[in-house]
């Protein structure tokens, strides 16, 4: 039986690393892609040490040439890529009136254009297999809006629309596309960079589930979405957010 191969972006830490480990436990070979090759290598080595198959890859998701080279390396090492989890992204907090063109463009380049480039690059493998799974990590701020994060929320809202469009266009090829919008998740680079302790406590108190999210919470949902059991699920927004947005 051939092993399915997944590319997980932003996979050197936090949510991406947790998804990589979980999919590997389910018998999927993993391309651990990140800007930080050292940290990606650590995650890949952990997977291999646990009995899985993985390779570390380095690329900026917004650079098509780098993504193409990384995907080709993954294909040669582990096989055609029929699962992609687009997790790589950046965040930021700035008042809307102070938001610069450069900040807006950078956010869209990484979060939106990066997802476009990566998905387009692996799509031929999925179409050839007549089977594929696309999972995009969006954000609950795209559903509720978020003060001081207009550019971030807008980029993630676009991911939700992109996911729905991919689901409609690719379903006939046996390919599903879904997105997961997390609430704030602890032990991630983004949460540590943007969420102060007082804000964390305030978010938890808002409930209805009175704890912060964990990377493993997102990984569990991603594992289901890429499984055979979720083959009739596409174009959906699977909110793993503790009830922040209902």
Report on this structure:
There is one protein chain. By secondary structure, the protein is of the alpha/beta class. The chain has one domain (about 5-230): NAD(P)-binding Rossmann-like Domain (Rossmann fold), CATH 3.40.50.720. It is about 50% helix and about 15% strand. It has 9 helices and 6 strands, in the order E-H-E-H-E-H-E-H-E-H-H-E-H-H-H. The chain has helices at about 15-25, 35-50, 65-80, 100-130, 140-145, 150-170, 190-195, 195-205, 215-225; strands spanning about 5-10, 30-35, 55-60, 85, 130-135, 175-180. A 6-stranded parallel beta sheet has the order 3-2-1-4-5-6, sandwiched between helices. Helix 1 (about 15-25) packs parallel to helix 2 and helix 3 packs parallel to helix 4 (about 100-130). The protein is globular and about 50 Å long. The protein starts with a strand and ends in a 21-residue tail after the last helix.
Radius of gyration: 17 Å
Shape category: globular
Structural class: alpha/beta
Approximately how much beta-strand content do the residues carry?
5-15%
CATH architecture: 3-Layer(aba) Sandwich
Number of domains: 1
Which tags fit this structure?
single chain, 246 residues, alpha/beta, Rossmann fold, six-stranded parallel sheet, 9 helices
Topology:
Elements: E1 5-9, H1 14-25, E2 29-34, H2 37-49, E3 54-58, H3 64-78, E4 83-86, H4 101-129, E5 132-137, H5 141-144, H6 150-170, E6 175-180, H7 189-194, H8 197-205, H9 215-225
Parallel strand pairs: 1-2, 1-4, 2-3, 4-5, 5-6
Describe the structure in brief.
With 246 residues, the chain is of the alpha/beta class.
């Amino acid at each position: 039986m051939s092993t399915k191969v997944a590319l997980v972006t932003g996979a050197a830490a936090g949510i991406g690393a947790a998804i990589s480990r979980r999919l590997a436990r389910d018998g999927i070979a993993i391309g651990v892609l990140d800007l930080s090759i050292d940290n990606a290598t650590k995650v890949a080595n952990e997977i291999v040490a646990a009995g899985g198959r993985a390779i570390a890859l380095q690329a900026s998701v917004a650079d098509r040439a780098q993504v193409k080279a990384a995907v080709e390396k993954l294909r040669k090492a582990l096989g055609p890529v029929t699962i992609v989890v687009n997790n790589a992204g950046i965040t930021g907090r700035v008042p809307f009136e102070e938001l610069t063109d450069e900040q807006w463009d950078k956010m869209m380049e990484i979060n939106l254009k990066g997802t476009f480039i990566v998905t387009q690059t692996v799509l031929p493998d999925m179409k050839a297999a007549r089977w594929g799974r696309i999972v995009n990590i969006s954000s609950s701020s795209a559903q509720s809006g978020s003060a001081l994060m207009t550019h971030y929320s807008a980029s993630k809202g676009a991911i939700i629309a992109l996911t729905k469009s991919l689901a409609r266009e690719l379903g006939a090829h046996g390919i599903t596309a879904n997105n997961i919008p997390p609430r704030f998740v602890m032990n991630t680079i983004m949460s540590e960079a943007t969420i102060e302790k007082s804000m964390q406590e305030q978010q938890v108190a808002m409930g209805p589930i009175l704890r912060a999210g964990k990377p493993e919470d997102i990984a569990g949902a991603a594992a289901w979405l890429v499984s055979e059991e979720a083959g009739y699920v596409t174009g959906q927004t699977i909110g793993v957010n503790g009830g922040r947005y209902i």
